[in-house]
Amino acid sequence: MKKVKFLLIIIFFIFLNNIAYSQDEVFFVDMQKILNSSKAGKQAQDFLKKKIVDENKKFEKEMQQLKKDEQDLISKRKTISQDDYKKSLNKLREKNVNYQKRKRDMNNQILGKKNEARNKLLASLNPILKKYMSDNKVKIILDKKYVVMANSQVDITDEILKILNDQVKSINLK
To answer: HSE (CB half, 13 Å, CA atoms) of 134?
Structure first.
């Protein structure tokens, strides 16, 4: 009986030790915070916001011109021949379709730049996380959005963010 108790106590301590040991090797980071709050991430966001605003101003001017052309065509409808009206209307429709296509292309281009910036930042972040893991004997780093509940002591977001800001100042998107 003493041997069984002794064996159970040994097994209990082994499992207890393994549980405590594994907790120190799992950490999480808030990837969204890192991507949005890092210097390079902020710089990329500012670049993309400026590009969106500039392009929207151009498209707004063009839209105003298309509306003006439409109003002019409507006002001239009774004064010009039916054939001339149809030709002008078809030209106006072509301009409108071209406008919509260029606007869609611009939006796709900006979305592509956003994805490119994200991928570049993640590519820069990957070696930083690997180095942190090897230096601190970490086995797993999880994204915060996949963690249901955890102690704030296992959140290494601020440490990783500081390292990223020191190593990556900007991302070239031009």
So the answer is: 5
The superfamily CATH assigns to domain 2-167 is Skp domain (3.30.910.20)
Hey, where are the domains in the chain?
2-167
Number of helices and strands in the chain (H, E): 5, 2
Contact 25, 138 (CB under 8 A): yes
pTM of the model: 0.71
Residues 155/143, Cβ–Cβ less than 8 Å: no
CA separation for the pair 46, 140 (Å, rounded)? 33
Query: Tokens representing 1?
Result: 């009986």
Q: Give the pLDDT confidence of 85-135 residue by residue, as tens digits.
A: 889 889 999 999 999 999 999 999 999 999 999 999 999 999 999 999 999
Report the alpha-carbon angle 152-156-42, nearest 5. Answer: 115
